[in-house]
Amino acid sequence: MYKLLFLFVFAFYGHINAQAQTYPVLDGNYANQDLLTAKEVEYQKSLRELNQNTQLSGRQALQQLSFSTDTYAESQGYSDIAFWHQISLPKATNETQKIHLKFANVMIDELNFYLIRDGRQIKAWQRGAQQEWLPGNDKDAIWLTIPLSDQLESSLLIRKRSNSSLLSPIAFFEDKKVAAAKLKQKVTWTVLTSALILLLFYNIAVYSFFRAPAFIYYILLNCSLILGISVTNGMGIWLFPDSVFSSLHQFKATINAISLWSVFRFSLLFFNTKNSFPILWKKRFFGDTILISYIFASLVFNYQELITSFLSLQLIVSFMCIFGLVHTGAQKNWAIKSYLVAWSCVIFGASVETLIFLNVIPYTEFSSNVYPVCTIIELIGFSLAFAEKAHSNEINRKHQLITDLHTGLPNRRFYFTQLETKLKKLALTQDSFALVTVQFTSQDSMNHVFGPEKADIAIRQTALVLNLTLLQDDKAITFTMPNKDIACLIKTSTNTLAFLCKDKHKLDEIVHQLLDVLDGVVTIEHFDMQHQYSIGAALYPEHTNNIDTLFRYSLIAADINNLCSDSWSLFNQKYQINHIYQHKLLARLKEDVREERLTFEIQPQVELNSGRIIGGEVLIRWNNEEMGKIGPDEFIPLAESAGLIYMVTQMIVNKVFAWVADNRHIIENKHLSINISAKDILRSDFAMQLINASVCHGVPPESFILEVTESSFFEHNKTVENNIKTLKDAGFRLSIDDFGAGYSSMHSVMMLSPAEIKIDRMFIQNLHKDETSFTLCKTLVTLITELGAQTVAEGVEGQQTINQLLEWGCQVGQGFGLYKPMAPSQYSELLNKNNNLSFIHLKQEI
Q1: Rg, C-alpha atoms of the chain
Q2: 468 Cβ contact partners less than 8 Å away, ≥ 6 residues apart
Q3: Higher pLDDT, 115 or 566
Q4: Higher pLDDT pick, 663 / 416
Q5: 535: how many CB neighbours lie within 10 A of its CB?
Q6: What does the alpha-carbon distance between residue 804 and residue 810 come to, in Å, rounded to a whole number?
Q7: Given the DSSP bridges, would you call strands 170-174 and 27-30 parallel, antiparallel or unpaired?
Q8: Residue 58 pLDDT greater than 50, yes or no
Q9: How confident is the model over 252-266, as a mean pLDDT?
Q10: Residue-wise burial string across 546-573, b where 16 or more C-beta atoms lie within 10 A, e elsewhere
Q11: 1-5, 297-301, 446-450, 649-653: range with lowest mean pLDDT
Q12: What is the pLDDT averaged over residues 298-314?
């Protein structure tokens, strides 16, 4: 591109030099010869001395001024002095009775022409930008028809005075060629004007779709460029009324200043300087201050006084724009390249225009049209830039629609709108493949503990690592996104990921590669935790050839996997039947929870050394009219996954408290244990809800023990710690349930300071069957005793077990070998009978 620009500049100067010949006569070319020139300074000085304001006439100027070519160069620049030119005209011939003069600079404030012959003024014209044109014409630039005499030679005197450039491009035409020259000029102006306006409106229409703040600066920039061209090129005389053109000429410096400021602001926003070059963005107000000050200065000072500062600012703004192009050019997109071409053309055209009016470059038909043509190229360049930007925006829009905002991975929309085509192509080369789904089942708990944002961050981190792992495995299918990124993993929801495996026979291999990542430690707020997850897979086309059904089957398999100990589960048709049953079960559970139809039973807890009942554990029961009795092991996990567990807990707690309030003897020197879920204790308002319920029913918190599974605790979790402290301060006692069966942690014991610890039934039932269970159970009893907590053995069924537990120092037992769970009324009656009975009579008949 730079080579093409260099060649264009080289050709341009070659064309200029080719036309910079000697003074042409009647050939339509602009003169490149010094004219006889005189200053009006001495005459004006003498008039001031005589207190006269009369303007020098053409006849007087010819008689009183001294003309020479020495001052011609001075008369072509910027000056507040009035200059006169003298041009000798030939006699008329049979072929040439009159000649036509074209004066291209329409920006001169005062411009007068005088035809002198034999010492007499034959004709006069007034054509200044700030003058009324006399005699009037059709306003098609400055054209003069000069009659010649066949007897005498004539002189044409030109007087000019202006605050702008005094450049005097003059061309002479034969009578037979002037009509064609005028038509050519009008055609050129029509083409230039139409091209400029049409391209401007096209770009405005395209750019308006972006609704970007740079839009207004683009309009200002190009409107100011077109208005500036209409003044300097002469088109303004033809396009606008006299008053409008006069105003444009008067405020030409202001128009140029606005164009500079517009370029500055537009470039800042077009290049997204706020993100790509923040230092410049922070300093933008300095540029605004300077350029806006220059705009106001242009309203006070004339163009001649501001020309130097304008050129300096033009160079500075151009440098900043080019610097921005270089800085952002590393992106190497067509929008940047198109802008580079467009702005380079504007800089080149503006520079040529400035050099012409500084009389550095000759004024020719070619050079006079360089700036308008460069502006057209600039508009074309911007249209290409906008088209590329629109294309880029469309790609980004499509990319955003089918990708996750935070990870950049394909999202659910991608799966259901784009993947089907991919699968059809894949089916041509692959007999079968598998969709694997990973569900993070700990998402809800993490939301309660850390908040949704940080819980999402934990899954995002793991998802990105999983994607990198899959990209390194040729068994995983890759997807190319609209922005050319490559991914394997699809983020179908906040807590669900999916990917495709090419070979169903290597499913186990690829899943086990991911287990290392899934089982890895994730750090949130200086807390190390592990994800809980389930993995399911479904085969295409064995299980289904429908993309929607395939996804549903893999989710069903993942749900089943959550209930078993396998590392992953493959879909089976019986799972679908079970899944339908689960949905039906959940619907009935929601209905019965809402209607408070769930009940509870009590299983007594016995002091082993005396046989006395010291309390009981509340066990929730559900007997649905349609589906019958459903065990807690089946519906409690369902309630937790569906978010119903908190309502279930609140309902049972209120029912138990109401029952105790009506039967206060139940808690005389005894307690009741109530199970609470991990989901409950992770709620920030759980403790206060429980305390308010006890106050409402008038039951003492000291009579209740809250059992929490020890695997449900999170280290350094403020929510859990606050709930525990509030409950203990209120008088509730705490118990660790199923101790030894979960992720045992001494920190949980220290944080809870439990009143009791319950040894899981797994150890008790295998006490005399397994030497390992025997040793572990003995160790646990000793440990709990040393911790100062009450030991409760679950699953006690035989006298031998009771004797062994008593020998180790276990205080309390619970199990079918002692008492089965019973209705609240039966438990109340049992307590009345049990008060004075020995252990041998306590033993329940089975």
Answers
A1: 48
A2: none
A3: 115
A4: 663
A5: 24
A6: 9
A7: antiparallel
A8: yes
A9: 85
A10: ebeebbbbbbbbbbbbbeeeeebbbbee
A11: 1-5
A12: 77
User: Beta-carbon neighbour count of residue 615 at 10 Å?
Assistant: 24
As a whole-number percent, the residues of the chain with pLDDT over 70 amount to: 87
Q: Which long-range contacts (CB under 8 A, 24 or more apart) does 760-766 make?
A: 760/794, 761/794, 761/795, 761/815, 762/795, 764/793, 764/794, 764/795, 764/796, 764/801, 764/805, 764/815, 765/795, 765/797
Helix (H, G, I), strand (E, B) or coil at 757: strand
With vertex at residue 72, the alpha carbon angle to CA 70 and CA 76, rounded to the nearest 5 degrees, is 150
Residue with tokens 């074309």: 380
Place of tokens 């207190």: 51
SS3 (DSSP) at 214: helix
Which range among 343-347, 431-435, 468-472, 526-530 has the greatest average pLDDT? Answer: 468-472
Bridge-based pairing of strands 671-676 and 704-709 is parallel
Sheet holding 533-540, edge to edge: 490-493, 496-501, 433-440, 533-540, 569-570
Residues written for the chain: 846
Q: What is the dihedral of CA 494, 500, 501, 505, to 10 degrees?
A: 90
Contact 134, 126 (CB under 8 A): yes
The contacts of residue 746 (CB under 8 Å, 6+ apart) are none
DSSP string, 163-185: SS-----EEEEEHHHHHHHHHHH
Write out the DSSP string of 628-674. Answer: EEE-HHHHHHHHHHHT-HHHHHHHHHHHHHHHHHH-GGGGTT-EEEE
Bridge pairing between strands 98-103 and 170-174: antiparallel
pLDDT digits (tens, 9 = 90+) for 377-418: 887 887 777 777 777 777 777 878 888 888 888 888 888 887
222 close to 215: Cβ distance less than 8 angstroms: no
Tell me the CA distances in angstroms from 130 to 75, 112, 228, 531, one per residue in order: 19, 12, 17, 82
Q: Is 30 left (phi over 0), alpha (psi -120 to 50) or beta?
A: beta
Task: Give the whole-angstrom CA distance, residue 218 versus residue 284.
Answer: 17
The helix-helix angle for 252-270 and 303-328 (nearest 10°) equals: 10
What whole-number distance in Å separates Cα of residue 659 and Cα of residue 703?
Answer: 13
- Identify the weakest region by mean pLDDT among 110-124, 500-514, 758-772: 758-772
According to the model, what pLDDT value does residue 618 have? 95
List the end-to-end C-alpha distance of the chain, in Å, as a whole number.
Answer: 97
Are 373 and 189 spatial neighbours (Cβ–Cβ below 8 Å)? Answer: no
**Token pair for residue 6?**
């260099």
